[in-house]
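Morning run. Coffee first, then this:
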Amino acid sequence: MKKINYDTAKYDFARLIKTIFDCEDLTKLHEKLPENIEYKELHKIGEDNKTWYHKKFYEPINNGDMEFVNVYRNFVREIITPLMHGEDFIFQRVPTFRVHAPGNVAVGGWHRDIDYNHSEHEINFFVPFTVAFGTNTMWVESEPNKKDFSPFEADYGDAYMWNGAILLHGNKPNTTGQTRVSVDFRVMKRKHYNENESKQSISRGTKFITGEYYDTFN
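And here it is:
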């Protein structure tokens, strides 16, 4: 695992999220949930990416508004590229949006990404736009099968590079009273990419190939 820092003035993710939700304090994003919508139970696998928050976030992108995606692509190009040490790589075309609201979880179930058809060669990045701590953040084991879970503690401007494909990880019910808003995404070195062996994303239903799940700068 590697913790990295970046300039939030240059990559102003939080400002864009605040605009989408008309919410000045993202730690209180749960207060923007419409009164007619309730999530009384913990999100289950397959439901954790279909909430009101997700529909609200992805709607502009699906309608052709690429402002957030363009900032994300610049982030990958300028922050992630140096971490690849000169090796060509592909990256997740659109990052995965997460909202970890009080009393709930952001990811429905403890898992390794290979459990969901991802390649063992993927490299994960966790990028929070609010303070991430305690029970409102991701908990990850330090080595495969060790199950010594610890939290990703981070402020806005921090990110984690880690091996989500093979490390068991998940969420605890959020008892902090503060919502965690974040994205995560995956990259893979080109030498490990084989389109003929690609499977399909269980959560998104897209194939793990460039042009669908992945993108490239080349």
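DSSP finds three helices and ten strands in the chain. Good start to the day.
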